[in-house]
Amino acid sequence: MSEVSKIRTFPPSKESWGGEAAFEGTHRKGELRGIIKINQDNCVGCDTCTAFCPTEAIKGSLGVAHAISTNKCVACGQCLVNCPFGAIEQMSFVDEIMKKLDDPKAFVVAHPSPAVRVSIAEEFGGTPGDLTINRLYNAFEKAGFHNYDVNFAADQTILEEGTEFIKKVRYWVLGERGEDLEHVAHHPLPHFTSCCPAWVKNAETFHPELIPHISGAKSPIQMGGALAKTWAAEFVWKKDPRDIYMVSVTPCTAKIFEASRPEFNSAYEHLKAESKIPQETPSFQDIDAVLTARDAAEIFRRKGINPLTMSDEREIETMNVYTGAATIFGASGGVMEAALRTAYFILSGTELSNPDITLVRGYEQDIVEATIPVPLKALNGKIINVKVAVVNGASRNIKEIVKRLIDDKNQYHFVEVMNCPGGCVNGGGQPVRTMGTSWLHPLLPLPLRA
Amino acid sequence: MANERVLKFPMSEKMFHNINMVTWMILAITGVLIYFKLVSEATASLMMTFHIGIAIVFTLNFVGFVVLNADRFFLMLRNLLIWDADTFAWFKNLGGYPRRLFGIPFGPVEVAPQGRFNAGQKITYLFFIFMIFGLIVTGWLLYFMAPVLGKTTMVYFFNFHVWGSIIATVMAVGAHLPLAVINIEDFKAMFRFGSGDVPLEDALHHAPKWVENDLVKVSTLEQPLKAHH
Predict the structure, then answer these.
(1) ipTM of the prediction greater than 0.90, yes or no
(2) Which of A203, A232, B61, B104 could potentially form a cystine with A236 if both were Cys, beta carbons 3.0 to 4.6 Å apart?
(3) How far is B158 from chain A (nearest CA, A)?
């Protein structure tokens, strides 16, 4: 088993949020940019990174120090994970969060994603999956955080995204019409997942024709942020939402960008509309800061905490209850599988006899296709074949899916897109191996796919 | 005997050596300029294109020599790899060079008789052949296969390519070239147009075991001798 590499980080600067202009290139006012940066002094121009960039955002010829185009970059961090020379650096909020943890007024909440729990042990000399979730919760608590598992919100996401898909099937396949279906009239099939921020940014910048197809459901992290500052603040923690400081702990560097998107201040908008906070309260984001798995490990190290040595005992808490469907979000095909379970149940009126839809799993193929027969309760058991695809790594596969859809718009009903090969578990924020080109293959590199 | 000559460097070896020398130096200079960022980005980019183009010639030269002159290549390897007691004895006084060049009385005055290559040349030339092969392999793997090599492998190959070539170049320029100039008959044989022969007297002085064991007289006086091994 190879070692874990140290990845250099840098704090955000004033320029990281842009200036006063509404748009600067592909970024809106307030959106973070330059999250992934190539250190010109350390880059030898080996050109490895360009093979892993899904948007051709990396400039530079062989032998010359490379640079990332801010306008093209979707902040997925695959270049960083795959750089042999450790020349690519990541924006980090560790210092800011450390200050918040020392602030007695702040109610700092760790919002850990499922892919982090299987990887963070490696930062402490363990093997993948060594850590149990209770040990991670206890470690966060010891560091001064409160816990709110992203899985809780992932279950909300699947309810939203699955229901949206069902409505699209009713409108576009079954021809139903009604007030509750009006909003899907402009959002045709195929239905694309929306929880990968790098994919969403990629579509917005390079494939705007796909935007009407993308689910309107927020990612689990963003749903979690809004729920934390509204429902949980009032009914669970009984805290002033303005004091809640939500820290997403993710395997993903693109989540750093996502958290800064101006529309993701739903809690603020809701609380203001409900007069639950003073009208003059300045806007705040649903997620205040993002830690990658590597950053979280850095905080533990600074606090002298080894999560592997924490107790595995813990009471079940309201904010940490979830289903198995939420946990599989972290792996390629997981969102699809979870959504199909919900869709199958609602459309057919029965539970799947075997909830494991293994057809859509795996990361060895660029694009996984499957057909799932679903008996429709509304049509006395008539079967429709739900055609799905899972895009495993964005590099050339998004272009391929777009090409297929141009050839035949009815080719799929549902498409899951994950920027990183293997899904979030292989995200740009995960511990970086010194040998393999990805977390999934610590010793043997992935084929040239990402 | 005064006019007798022996063939030291057949045409195939001369061609390989001289093309290798010229391309090596171009590759070394362009490589150093690029790696140490001594030129502008645009120039570095042009240099890299040039580096890769010359690398094709460098590779074909080596492959061509090995494939088209396999007998010569393996004969050379045999000469380099056979080590007898006299080869090891060379190290007792380093071939007499410290005494001859710098007046340092290091080891015995008498030099142990050597074959076509003395012990120092054997080590150096084996190293050069290994480096030529290694630089070709690592260079093309870095060019074509970087994303699938595995990161640590990539770093090892890269460092071998950069630092291995720098060390070999320093050895070639700092030791191989001056010593070749000192052995002026070898130098002339390698670089003159025409036959790569040296006086038999010189061969007997530097490589008596080669003359004794490997050479066969095939022509009369004042004609080049062809070596049969």
Answers:
(1) no
(2) A232
(3) 9
Tell me which of B221 and B182 has the higher pLDDT. Answer: B182
Q: Which of A299, A320, A341 is the last residue of a domain?
A: A320
- Per-residue model confidence as pLDDT tens digits over B76-99: 999 999 999 999 999 999 999 999
Query: Is A258 annotated in the active site?
Result: yes
Do A234 and A312 have their domain in common?
Answer: yes
Above 90 in pLDDT, residue B114? Answer: yes
A388: nearest Cα among A450, A345, A334, A424: A334
The answer on A132 and A84 residing in a single domain is no
Q: What's A63's domain CATH number?
A: 3.30.70.20
Q: Nearest CA of chain A to the CA of B147: how many Å?
A: 5
Choose one of A320, A352, A377: the last residue of a domain: A320
A102 in a structural domain:
yes
With tokens 């062809």, the residue in question is: B226
Residues of B in contact with A80 (CB under 8 A): none
Give the chain A residue whose CA is nearest to the CA of B149.
A445
Q: Is residue A195 part of a domain?
A: yes
Among chain B residues, the shortest Cα distance to A432 is held by B151
Task: Give the Å distances, CA to CA, from B36 to A41, A43, A127, B23.
Answer: 10, 11, 38, 20
Q: Is A444 on the interface with B (CB under 8 A)?
A: yes
Structure tokens at A4: 């874990």
Q: What Cα–Cα distance (Å) separates residue A175 from each residue in A170, A305, A377, B25?
A: 6, 57, 15, 74
Q: Is A66 on the interface with B (CB under 8 A)?
A: no
Strand partners, A389: A369, A415
Q: Are residues A398 and A296 in the same domain?
A: no
Selecting from B51, B148, B155 the residue whose C-beta is nearest the C-beta of A447 gives: B148
**Res. B223: pLDDT tops 70:** no
To the nearest whole angstrom, how far is the Cα of A47 from the nearest Cα of chain B? Answer: 8
CB proximity B41 to A under 8 Å: yes
Q: Does B126 touch chain A (CB under 8 A)?
A: no
Q: How far is A82 from A40, CA to CA, in rounded Å?
A: 16
The yes/no answer on whether domain B70-225 falls in CATH 1.20.950.20 is: yes
User: Domain residues for A334?
Assistant: 158-218+324-425
